# Entry
Amino acid sequence: MTEIIDNTVLPAAFVPTPTREFNAASVNRGAARPPSRPALELVRSTDDQAAAGPVITIPIPPLPISFASRVLIYKQDPSVAEIGLRRILLRGLFGTGPSNNRIHLSGVPPVAPNSMNDFIQTPDTATFDAVHTFSVVHLTLAMCQRAVGAAIKWQWNSGSNTDPITVFPHAGVTMNAFYSRGEKALKFFYFNKPGAPAPAPVIYTCRSLDIVAHECGHAVLDSLKPG
# Structure
């Protein structure tokens, strides 16, 4: 059985089903501003009102907007076939890319969110690689920030410099992946599987959750402990 989402054909099992947590997080998604809430009145008895004067009205601030997007990522590496895919919910507001104010992608086709603000793509494609790589970098940064209890700036962020880190899922052909402070970048390369008969399958380092998280960890460590 297959399902078509914004012209993307996927097996039905790949399409995340909205959970209670997702629905709660996305109640106000897309709203121009938070909905207003009625003011709370401090109610007194008739005798109290006569003694204390008019009823006091206490304004209540509007509810905050929660944004989130669903994505698919590889659980480890697609070469480990039995591990497969993971459905996750990314918390935050994301633009085409995917991107946000901390992470930008380069060198791969940009992916726009679908009508539900999700980034669901077909595995083994450049667009899936874009979403997977962004998602793992985002999750790694969020995990580290929870651990230290504060926002983590990239090493070059200071004063008015708010440049994001640029992530290259398909940086070129070589057996490597690395973080570069000078380039403000995470670069993930690809190569033909050594020793495999022609046509040898291509290994993409960006498809390994471990490799992407590891290289993002270097960027975080450089921010917290430069040198």
Remarks:
- The two ends are 52 Å apart (CA to CA).
- Residues 1-8, 28-46 have pLDDT under 50 and may be disordered.
